[in-house]
Specification:
The complex is a heterodimer. Chain A is built from ten helices and no strands. Chain A is globular, with a radius of gyration of 20 Å. By secondary structure, chain B is of the alpha/beta class. Chain B has two domains: 241 residues, P-loop containing nucleotide triphosphate hydrolases (Rossmann fold, 3-Layer(aba) Sandwich); 85 residues, ACT domain (Alpha-Beta Plaits, 2-Layer Sandwich). In chain B, the strands form three sheets. Chain B has a six-stranded mixed β-sheet with strand order 6-7-8-3-9-10, with helices on both faces. In chain B, helix 4 packs across helix 5 and helix 4 packs parallel to helix 6. Chain B is elongated, with a radius of gyration of 24 Å. Classes of the chains: A mainly alpha, B alpha/beta. Chains A and B meet through helix 1 and helix 4 of A and helix 3, strand 6 and helix 4 of B. The structure holds adenosine-5'-triphosphate (ATP) and magnesium ion.
Chain lengths: 272, 348
């Protein structure tokens, strides 16, 4: 093979990747268009519940003296992580269930001239975007409700952690959304999603569970725990939290594992 | 259209040049998981570039499954499929860039307006934004959907959705267009528009592969037709050649009023024993005038390839029985006759 042939092959490969990237952006931009139109209902769905939790746990119970005065700094990162993670997860799951329902609305995207895995990836990206937006909206509301603040530097780190956490949520949503039949979707939310939100170290720092060993083990199995603990380490380093050397690699690892499983499930549903 | 039809007819299946072929299917088998029988069971055919090719078959014959494999959304169990020069198994993304498909079920994106459906589709296919918008407007107008451009798909009637799906498929100017049941749910006017549009895109060089159970439609639209039954391809040829293969089925159709002496039974029996008539079928005569209601007989005399002698004999006999002949028509075998013969008769 001559040098020019090799260069030719390289150029063709580069052109193909560029083509795929253009199709990928078109897929994401379709989702963003739809997302933009749904903003009001989506905010009501994802922001109201965290706000109520903050109000009752962070303000009411703390003021009444049932919870310690430093509890808000435990709660705040937990709730922000929960909002991002669950927002991304629920959105992705529901979306996929609709897409693969009998109307097969996703057909046209599956026929985009790009690998099927990219269509799946576009779903994860928009799902994560949705989680991110929810967290970005909830955070100032939380500041106002609890009367605590993060420095600009902390906000920046939090943004990165929330982005990764949203990605994990969206990827998990893809695993669920492609594994579950449309008829089982409410049951899945009740059995999987609700327990995830209560065992994900959102309302408590995970290391303190050492005295409640079985619950600590359950919590350790919840992917949300690692997102909450990463964020807690970033913005509330004074409260007990899992070392960043464990929680951050765990988040990235989960992103990879769920991402791969999700893409596999997606391909199985997409190509009959 | 006719030029390509003749060329395709001359070449036949084996003669289609692989390099010139828009679609090559070899030994295609698709077995859905948990199903004992294969939905597609060893199908091979080629479609030449610029051809209009029809797959006709009964419900469940495997037409949609075949289209599914050819359009990359159904994975073949075995066999090779090449569309637009790209193997759908090894280069599905490449194949997708060259094809478009109008599926049998309504699969418009219901989160988007009709117009957005078209534009977004073109964007997936990397059509520049400006061109995508212009083309969307032109196609919506062409399909009589100009005033529904902003509607959500589920606000459209079934036929309007079908037209929107066809418009969407044409947005990126595919080399090969697959249409599964093109005229489902269409009114006669829309059917005409679709027919015209398919003719136009074909005239511009697009290969069209369609499926249908409407044999008249297949005959009218397709250069070549493949007859599918229970996952197998029974015959592939031009409609005319398929008709000729069933030359035995030439029929003389007669509408007669039995004479005063001989009743209908005697007429049928008498014609049945006329030289050159193989069989007589009786159908109730439609469109007879009220006064004579019930007295007209519509008969089909099945003859050999040349009906001249049996026809003369039959008319002679009818005159002898003082029957009044109201209509005489010689009908060449239609695709329908061939189809029924190949797939095991009407009674199945
Ligand atoms: N997703 C599926 N899973 C299992 N079996 C399937 C699936 N899709 C189709 N089949 C079966 O495969 C066979 C062929 O179906 P197909 O849809 O290809 O037929 P068709 O020729 O398009 O019929 P129609 O004229 O009704 O559209 C049928 O027996 C059908 O039940
Ligand atoms: Mg079908």
């Amino acid at each position: 093979m001559s040098g020019s042939e090799v260069r030719d092959g390289d150029r063709r490969r580069t052109a193909r990747w560029r083509d795929w990237a253009v199709s990928f952006l078109a897929l994401v931009s379709r989702d963003v268009t739809v997302l933009g139109r749904e903003v009001p209902s989506f905010l009501a769905q994802t922001v109201l519940q965290p706000f109520l939790m903050l109000l009752v746990l962070g303000t009411v119970l703390t003021d009444l003296g049932y919870l310690r005065p430093d509890y808000p700094s435990v709660l705040l990162p937990g709730i922000v992580a929960l909002t991002a993670f669950l927002g991304a997860c629920q959105h992705t799951t529901l979306n996929l269930v609709f897409d693969f329902s009998y109307t097969r609305e996703i057909d046209d995207r599956l026929l985009a001239p790009a690998p099927t895995a990219l269509v799946a990836l576009a779903k994860v990206v928009t799902g994560a975007l949705r989680g991110l937006v929810a967290a970005v909206v909830v955070t100032p509301v939380a500041f106002l409700t609890l009367g605590t603040w993060w420095s600009p530097a902390e906000c920046l780190v939090a943004f990165v952690v929330v982005l990764a956490g949203s990605g994990v949520g969206a990827a998990l949503g893809m695993v669920l959304g492609t594994a579950v039949e449309p008829s089982q979707i409410s049951a899945t939310f009740a059995v999987v999603v609700i327990p995830l939100s209560f065992t994900g170290a959102t309302h408590f720092p995970w290391p303190l569970l050492a005295e409640l060993r079985w619950f600590q083990v359950v919590s350790a199995l919840n992917p949300l725990t690692y997102v909450s603990e990463s964020l807690r380490g970033a913005v509330s380093p004074e409260v007990p939290h899992l070392s960043g050397w464990i929680s951050v690699p765990a988040v990235l690892g989960l992103l990879l594992v769920f991402g791969l499983l999700g893409v596999r499930g997606f391909r199985r549903r997409a190509i009959r | 259209m006719t030029g390509a039809a003749e060329a395709a007819g001359e070449q036949g299946l084996a003669g289609v040049d692989r390099r010139e072929a828009a679609v090559v299917v070899r030994d295609l088998v698709k077995r859905y998981p948990g199903r004992a029988r294969a939905a597609v069971d060893g199908v091979s055919f080629s479609v030449a570039r610029g051809e209009v090719f029809g797959l006709v078959g009964t419900n469940g014959a495997g037409k949609s499954t075949t289209v599914g494999v050819l359009t990359t959304l159904v994975a073949a169990t075995s066999g090779t499929v090449v569309v637009g020069g790209r193997d759908v198994r090894t280069d599905p993304a490449g194949a997708r860039g060259r094809l478009a498909v109008v599926t049998q079920h309504h699969n418009l994106d219901r989160s988007l307006s009709v117009r957005q459906n078209l534009v977004v589709h073109a964007r997936y296919h990397r059509v520049p934004r400006r061109r995508a918008h212009d083309r969307a407007d032109a196609l919506l107008e062409r399909f009589g959907l100009g005033d529904r451009a902003g509607s959500r798909p589920d606000r459209l009637s079934g036929g309007q959705q079908q037209r929107a799906k066809i418009a969407r498929a044409l947005m990126h100017e595919p080399a090969v267009l697959f249409v599964d049941e093109p005229s489902t749910a269409l009114d006669p006017r829309a059917r005409l528009v679709v027919s015209e549009v398919l003719g136009e895109v074909n005239a511009r060089g697009t290969t069209v592969v369609l499926t249908t159970h409407d044999l008249a439609e297949a005959e009218r639209w397709c250069h070549r037709v493949g007859i599918v039954d229970r996952g197998r391809l029974l015959a592939v040829d031009t409609p005319a050649a398929l008709g000729a293969s069933a030359a035995d089925a030439v029929a003389v159709e007669l509408v007669v009023a039995p004479g005063p002496v001989d009743g209908p039974g005697a007429v049928v029996a008498g014609l049945g024993s006329t030289a050159g008539v193989r069989r007589v079928e009786v159908a109730p005569a439609a469109g007879t005038d009220g006064a004579a209601e019930g007295t007209w007989l519509r008969l089909r005399l099945l003859t050999g390839a040349d009906p001249t002698v049996p026809l003369a004999e039959a008319l002679e006999a009818l005159r002898g029985w003082a029957c009044e002949v109201r209509e005489v028509r010689v009908s060449r075998p239609s695709l329908e006759d061939v189809f029924l013969e190949l797939t095991g008769g009407a009674g199945r």
